[in-house]
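The protein record filed here:
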Amino acid sequence: MEKILEISDPMVLRSNAGYYIGELCLTEHTFSDGKVSTFWLPYDRMSGYYATKFLAWATLERYI
């Protein structure tokens, strides 16, 4: 079972397609044996892709 604990503010993220503005979510996963793990996962892509981190950072302010 997964539960979203927190959603980040917009930030510059990177994927194989390039840099983009998006949010992450802190997710709690409970396994069948009862063990619990938390990790950050991509939650929302708010922009298109940028070729460089600099270009993405230059537009970040629009999303905050």
Remarks:
- The beta strands are 2-7, 11-15, 18-30, 36-45.
